[in-house]
Specification:
By secondary structure, this protein is an alpha/beta fold. About 35% of the residues lie in helices and about 20% in strands. The chain is built from 9 helices and 16 strands. The chain has an 8-stranded parallel beta barrel with strand order 3-4-7-8-9-10-15-16, surrounded by 7 helices. Helix 4 packs parallel to helix 5 and helix 7 packs across helix 9. The longest helix is centred in the C-terminal third of the chain and has 17 residues. It is globular. Bound molecules: ligand RRO.
Length: about 300
Amino acid sequence: MKPDLTVEIAGLKLRNPTMLAAGVLGISGSLLRRVAEAGAGALVTKSIGPEPRAGYPNPTVADVRCGLLNAMGLPNPGIKAFSRDIIALKTLEVPLVVSVFGSNPQEFVEVAREAEKAGADALELNASCPHVKGISEICQHPRLLSEIVESVKSAVTVPTVVKLSPNVANIAETAKIAEDAGADAVTAINTVRAMAIEIETGRPILANKIGGLSGPAIKPITVRCVYEISKSVKIPVIGCGGIACWQDAIELLLAGATAVQIGTAIAQKELKIFKSVASGIQNYLENKGYKEVQEIVGLSHRY
Ligand code: RRO
C-alpha cells in the first residue's frame, strides 16, 4: 500500500501536505477552485481586510532572478464582497483558509467574524506583510501580536493560524507569543524585506521602493525559521517560502513543518506543481519505508 499523504493541522484534514500560499491566485473563487482541482491539499486566499483596497501603483512585481520581489500593497475587494466568493466555495472538497488583516485588533476581529460566517474553514492572520504600515510591525510588538490573536480567538471558533514575519530578531520567540495567545498553528514565513534598483537611472524598481522577496533565494531562511520555531512551540508549523519541488517540501517536513505552502513557484511550474510535490513526497516515504507523513516531521531535530 502507498504511504498515507493526509495530514491534520488544528483539526483541519488535508488530503496531502501541499497548500496554496496566501496572495497567489487566491483573489477569486474561480481561481481557487482551479487550484483545488489541480490537487492542492488546502487553499489560502489573498489577504482580505475590512474595506476594498486598491493597493500600490505599478510596478508592484519585479523578477530579480533568484526570486520575485513584490509590493502589491494588500489589494483586495474587502470582506463584504469577498464573502460571496467564500460562500460560493462551500462545495470545495479541500479546506479554505481565509487570510485576514486589519489595522488594529478590532478590524482583525471584524474581518475574521465575517469570514467565519461566510464559511471559512480556518483563518490565517496576516501579521507580517513586510511593507504595509500597521501590518509590517506586528511581529515586532509582542503585546500587539498577543492582543490580535487573543481577540480573534475569542471571537471565532474556526482554527486560527498566524503567519509570521522573518523580519524579526528571534522568530521562535514570536511563534511562542502567538502560541501563548491561543494560535492553533503558525505559518513561517512571509516574504523577506528587500529592494531592487534599476542601474541606468538609479531608480528603485518597485513603486513602493521596498518589497518582499519570495522564491528560491529565501528557502534556506524558511528552513531555518521552521527548524527554530518547531523547537520552541507545540502547535503545528506550516512551511512557506521558496518551495519549488518535492525535495524542498521534504526538507521543510524534516525541519518540522506539517504542511507546506506553495506560491511563487506556480508562476514557473504552473498548477501541476501541487500534484508533482505530493507524489514526490509519497515516493520518498515509500522508498524510505515510512507509512505516513507525520513520521518524518521534525526528523532533523534528532541530530
Ligand atoms: O499585498 C502585498 O503586497 C503582500 C502581502 Br499582503 C504579504 O503579506 N506579503 C507580501 O509579500 N506582499
